[in-house]
Amino acid sequence: MTLDMLKKGSSENFLLKQIIKRNFTTKYKDSVLGILWSFLNPLITMVLLTAIFSTFFTKSIENFPVYFMAGRCVIDFFNSGTKIAMTSIKRNRSILQKIFIPRYIFAIGGICSEFLNFLMSLIVMIAIMIVTGAPFYAMGLFAVIPIATLVILITGVGLILAIVCTKFTDIEYLYKIFTSLLVYACAIFYPMDIVPQPIRGYMELNPVYGIIAQFREFVMYGRFPSQTIMLTTIIFSIVIFIIGVLVFRKYQNKITLEL
Amino acid sequence: MNETNSKIETKIVPSIHNTFSLEAYLKTAEDASLSNQKIKCNTYKLDGEFINSHQYITDDAGKFEVSFDSDNDLKIELIFDGSEEYEKTELTTFFLKESEEEKKRIEEEEKQKELEAKRLAEEKEKEEKALKRKQNKERKAKLLEEYNNNQSYLQTTGDDNVAIELRNVSLSFKIGNDKIDNLKEYVIRTLKRNKEKKTIFKATDDVSFKIYKGEKVGLIGYNGAGKSTLLKIISGVYSPDEGDVIINGNIAPLLSLGAGFDKNYSGRENIFLNGAILGYDEKFLREKYDEILEFSELGDFINLAVKNYSSGMLSKLGFSIATIVDPDILILDEVLGVGDITFRKKSKEKLKSLMESNTTVLLVSHSIPEIRSICDKAIWIEKGKVREIGEVNYICDKYTKEAKNASKEKTKKLKPQRF
């Protein structure tokens, strides 16, 4: 699907650009600070949560603000990316009903704009790292591996959800509950060590947590995470991506009829 | 003419059967024949009862021939203004002058003549009508022949000339009265085994046709026949359940104007957004930006957010963006005239210029005159199927005829009722 897109060339890239631009402007319309919110939002939640939780976990987490930001960036990207892809077909039904454009383009465009948002929050994270005097590792550059895995996973999940959510509208609300559950399950603001075994074993199977853990290992500690975890998350993400593409391909035509 | 100088000579020529002819010559006293004179011939029974009357014109030799069909003896009166009285046999009587009776009869005759003339005029009219009908028939036959020739010409043109080809295209919608659109209901209904009853509605049913490059084709049919669905299939919005759609060339579907306008965007930004949705690339839009702006007549409004536009301004902008291309295939759902009077005229002209030359046009319209003036081929869609394809006037005639009958029948049922 992405290959198709590259082949079709400039007009579709242009459309993608326009969609990303539109997503940004609608997100920050009527706000004075505009795009600054992309920086302010993670900063404020970080300050709040640090104020609340840092005292609990000072022993096991050496730099809570960075620990929190690393987790939050990833989980935020996952949540907002899948959500925007999920509603992409429904929100743009007026266009999809009238003009032929590839149906995946709104999902991809949404994920792209959320990816840009993610990059901006990474800038915030780096700023916090500088402020708190956290060390920088060359190994941190390998963080692109979990990030790439994350993008693949989000695209897969997003494509599946886009189809399912168009068919069943209440998936949107169910998914909202699911995402807030996911935030608590991914050890964003607490160390995984506090969770007792056997539950912890199950929680570590969560691929999103896997990605967060890898990301932290690379960025915060400059270590290479366990290769089995990396491999399983990558394989899992690719499988989900393939399923997503297949599902989307199979049902995209039927979905337009039911819009 | 000298009255005393002319005479009538007669000669009876009997024949087999019951007829006999009377050969008569109109001559002057000097035996010179009088040509082109009017002779009246009255016939009577011997008891004086009038039978009938004829008129003859003498030929070059002054001759005229009267034939009778009778078993009985007859009294025959030959009247010529200016002949002598001339009596020959008991069978015939000749009078020089018209008698009083005669005058009356003549009046009557004149009346009859008038009637006759009337009848003749009527007959002539009838004949003319018949002629017209014949001509129409001939014209139709000619058209049909032309169309057939055309068809065979089209058939001989190669497949590389095909702009749009549909092969056995079918598309059906599932229609449920109680459509399940959420998971909760889906699960409950599945558990209760109380699934929705679905009716399958075939919006397009086994449609095949070819449209060649440069052809202007009109799609006609009643409401709900599946014309718009067909357009959506061709423009790619819907994919058919079965069959193939083959398109050669770039399509400009003018099905909706300003799709995807963002109301918070300025007109300028919307040109790029809408252009991108329509499939233009960035370079093209930048080149054409001024042209779009000029055509839309928006002026300084272009920098304002679209939410402040009037609906007319919106459609003007949408039209300007949609028609900036030079498409190979133009798809239209009704010819769009948008905006105020001046812009309406301008937009129609723009469309006309788009339709010229080699552009393949596919037009859905309920205005038959429009179809006739724009298209040269028509496809009649009925209940999702192609009912007939052919030369535009031929199909339109048939269609309007049937529509007339149908509406007559419908209005019959709609007799006003008093309560």
Total strand segments of chain B: 16
Q: Report the total helices of chain A.
A: 12
Strand order of the largest sheet of chain B: 12-13-14-10-15-16
The poorly predicted ranges of chain B are 84-91, 93-98
Helicity level of chain A: over 70%
Biggest interface, which chains?
Answer: A-B, 32 and 31 residues
C-alpha-based Rg of chain A, rounded = 19 Å
Mean of residue pLDDT values of chain A: 85
The major beta sheet of chain A can be summarized as: none
How much helicity do the residues of chain B have?
25-40%
Distance between the termini of chain B: 83 Å
Percentage of residues in strands of chain B? 25-35%
Domain count of chain A: 1
- Structural class label of chain B: alpha/beta
Q: Tell me what portion of residues of chain A adopts beta-strand conformation.
A: under 5%
Report the total helices of chain B.
9
Features:
heterodimer, A: 259 residues, 12 helices, 0% strand, B: 419 residues, alpha/beta, six-stranded mixed beta sheet, four-stranded mixed beta sheet, 9 helices, 29% strand, elongated
Task: Kindly describe this structure.
The complex is a heterodimer of chains A (259) and B (419). Chain A has 259 residues and is mostly helical. Chain A is built from twelve helices and no strands. Chain A has one domain (66-257). Chain A has helices at 2-8, 10-27, 37-53, 64-86, 88-91, 93-96, 104-131, 144-167, 171-185, 199-204, 207-221, 227-258. In chain A, α2 (10-27) packs across α7 (104-131) and α4 (64-86) packs antiparallel against α7. Chain A is globular and about 60 Å long. Chain B has 419 residues and is an alpha/beta fold. Chain B has helices spanning 100-156, 183-192, 227-235, 267-277, 282-296, 311-322, 341-355, 368-374, 392-413, and strands at residues 6-14, 19-28, 38-45, 50-57, 63-69, 74-79, 92-95, 162-176, 198-212, 216-220, 242-247, 251-254, 329-333, 360-364, 377-382, 385-391. In chain B, the strands form four sheets. A six-stranded mixed beta sheet of chain B has the order 12-13-14-10-15-16, with helices on both faces. In chain B, strands 4-3-6-7 form a four-stranded mixed beta sheet, with no helix packed on it. The longest helix of chain B is centred in the N-terminal third of the chain and has 57 residues, at 100-156. The model of chain B is unreliable at 84-91 and 93-98 (pLDDT under 50). Chains A and B meet through α2, α6 and α12 of A and β8, α2 and α4 of B.
